[in-house]
Amino acid sequence: LAQLIYDLKQVNPAAVVSVKLVAEAGVGTVAAGVVKGHADLIHLSGNNGGTGASPLSSIKHAGGPWELGLAETQHTLLTNGLRSRVRVRVDGGFQNGRDVVMGALLGADEFSFGTAALVAVGCKMARSCHTNTCPVGVATQRLDLIEKFPGQPEHLMIFMLQVAEEVRQILARLGYRSLNEIIGHAELLQQTVTGAEASFIELLPLLWVPDTGQPRRNVEARNVLPGGADLGERLATEAMAELDGDGAPVRLRYAISNTDRTV
To answer: Are strands 110-111 and 87-91 parallel, antiparallel or unpaired?
Structure first.
């Protein structure tokens, strides 16, 4: 994975490289490896998401709750001093502002809305996205069905504005002015026990925040590659200068080391 990320950044140094992970036991260790591989963004998906275009096996049987995966990822990255180097995005059934605030408190920088956004523009959840027979024209190439599409840009705009308004109201009740102020502050959450069976569930490990003195959110714009690995760029620059000349054979000599992954 580190090799692939390196190659992508060599081809396009300005690209933001994202790696998608599924919320499950052990995802924190994988996330730490992704950051050490110099990815810029980790996209963490929970088991409650999945539009009709997703395979049925993935919708019903893949992954676990995003809350568990996000908490483990946040703990692992903080403990290893990696949290500030990467943006963490989460999805998996996000529907309202409460979900956004909950995700921020558990450590997410960004949030994705899939199914809820589709419903806002008219999706009927027919689960036929992969058959080209969407009855409301959301996911189809058939012109007769596309004509039935009821959505307008304003529908999605209004939905997102309402989500943002709910986020603002919750932040006001907590005494904060922006999401950035609460990212990673899981200590603001409190377990509510309702019902006899719920008393057997202990969620305190999710609300524990490692006291590492490190930032709890992303503060670095890019997870830059280590220095001293610019041989490919130097080779391209000097070779191109020669090739733009009279077309004579080009012979260049460089020292190479194991920090030069790809030339």
So the answer is: parallel
**Quick one: which of 101, 99, 44, 107 has its CA closest to 75?**
107
pLDDT in tens, the chain (263 residues): 998 998 898 888 888 999 999 999 999 999 999 999 999 999 999 887 666 566 667 667 778 899 999 999 999 999 999 999 999 999 988 999 999 999 999 999 999 998 899 999 999 888 888 888 999 999 899 999 999 999 999 999 999 999 999 999 999 999 999 999 999 999 999 888 777 777 788 888 888 888 888 899 999 988 888 765 578 778 878 887 777 777 677 788 888 887 777 77
Delimit the domains of the chain by residue range. 2-207, 226-263
Kindly state the tokens that stand for 155.
């529908």
Q: For the domain bounded by 2-207, which CATH number is listed?
A: 3.20.20.70
Classify each residue of 133-150 as buried b or exposed e, where b means 16 or more C-beta atoms within 10 Å of its C-beta.
Answer: ebebbbbbeeeebeeeee
